[in-house]
Design brief:
The chain is of the alpha/beta class and 218 residues long. It has helices spanning 46-50, 74-84, 104-111, 128-137, 159-171, 194-203, 206-213; strands spanning 30-31, 34-35, 54-55, 63-64, 91-93, 115-121, 146-152, 175-180. The N and C termini lie far apart (58 Å). The mean pLDDT is 90.
Length: 218
């Protein structure tokens, strides 16, 4: 009615994504240097939608939104860090750094880069050995630079089990960030449960859960 050319697409329509254009659909500073992921986590849409890793042309930005940057080639990763070194803002690795791909040479790159936060993820108990290894590699960095996404409520996990895992993540030297699973495999509407709401409210708020870990809050 109003436009001659209307194009429909994007992730909601299964678009695998092409080259990244800074500032388009996302705020300034966000950059995507690769698409896809070589892993096949059953709760993740990325490999189904974007396929395996595809390295893109590197554009300027400081907030890396790649699904799995560390799965890229060494040359690409080093070029990304070279680009980050030119930015006025400290780097953010909001897309996450895959703990299973983390190597000592990645740590060397991080040590030469101004960065505010590096994000990791731990979605189940089975991921702890890899996170413990990552904690050892990252031991020279303060906790406030190391964050960890934590999927909770998946595969009938209880609030008590989820909190125990979040406490273990904190004790490994990371700042946990809980993410409530809401997919069809949950089999229930956990988001309406007061226990889950209380857990999410606590473990998405660093000030609140740090006080809890110090015994200042129940």
């Amino acid at each position: 009615m109003y436009f001659k050319d209307v194009q429909i697409g994007g992730p909601a329509f299964g678009d695998p994504g092409g080259e990244f254009t800074p500032g388009r659909f996302v705020k300034e500073g966000v950059v995507v240097t690769s698409r896809g992921c070589p892993k096949h986590c059953e709760f993740c849409l990325v490999p189904k939608r974007e396929g395996r890793i595809r390295e893109l042309r590197i554009k300027e930005g400081f907030n890396i939104f790649d699904n799995n940057l560390l799965a890229c080639s060494r040359g690409h990763i080093e070029a990304v860090f070279e680009m980050l070194g030119r930015q006025k803002e400290p780097a953010h690795f909001t897309g996450g750094l895959d703990k299973t791909f983390l190597q000592p040479w990645h740590i060397d790159l991080l040590k030469t880069t101004r960065f505010k936060r590096a994000w990791f993820a731990l979605d189940s108990e089975s991921g702890f050995p890899a996170l413990e290894r990552a904690a050892d590699l990252l031991s020279d960095f303060p906790r406030e630079k190391k964050y960890c996404y934590a999927l909770v409520g998946y595969e009938n996990e209880t609030p008590a089990e989820a909190e125990a895992r979040l406490i273990r993540i904190f004790n490994l030297g990371f700042m946990p960030f809980s993410m409530l699973y809401r997919g069809p495999l949950a089999g229930r509407k956990v988001s309406s449960d007061p226990a889950w709401r209380a857990l999410i409210r606590k473990w998405c708020n660093p000030a609140r859960y740090k006080a809890f870990m110090k015994g200042l809050l129940p």
